[in-house]
Amino acid sequence: MTITKKQLQESVDFLEKKGFLNPEIGIILGTGLGKLVNEIEDPITAHYNHIPFFPLATVEFHTGKLIYGTIEGKKVVVMEGRFHLYEGYDFMDITYPIRVMHQLGIKNLFVSNAAGAINLNYKKGDIMLIEDHINLQGGSPLAFKNVAEFGDRFVDMLEPYDLAMRKKIEAIAIKNNISIQKGVYASVVGPQLETKAEYRMLKIIGADAVGMSTVPEVIVANHLKLPIVAVSVLTDECDPDNLQPVNIQEIIEVAGNTEPKMILLFKELIKQL
To answer: What residue segments make up the domains of the chain, in order of their start?
Structure first.
């Protein structure tokens, strides 16, 4: 699959007609982290299946809506439900919404995800500010023929996560007594979880957390020169020597319990931008 400027324009025209005008901040909500939408004032909703050329969310706990409105006095556009390789989407599908939000006018992108803690000093329920990532998804959302129409083909990834916003998040966390970790996020294909041997490998290559999302969106945001801040809510501990069977409901529950802290960090950061 490839994308065209005409497709993007059709998606943007549809959303602008609905009232999605001049958003400043785009937000992607990860698994179990959907309650930020309750903070949106005067929301306007567009279901993914109504937006031209938008993929559809297939994961049962991702609802599949784009919501526009105001948080802390700023216009935001929020993705409630994101797309993953493990759903059968390709990198173009997964990152199409980032290009649409950029065309709508966003100046910053906030990303959240639920992830497993590889660094055993980190515990479930912790929030990890992503400082860097390792792409283990076996491809790139920039590997298509007409990519140069949208930006430089060879994108620098020296500092994929915006330093200034990271410092702001750290200061907000200290001020509000929220303990946050910092680290490297490894993105894998999924949907199966990792074997004990794979967890050992992830630790050796320098990952602090592992998940199945985020990296494609971050690569495209860098392509569009869009500053990003991203946090992982650590929902399980990936200790290969004491591995327990996975419990998806528990992962959702842990994400939900930690979510209020993440919402506070995001809201305070929105206030400061």
So the answer is: 5-272
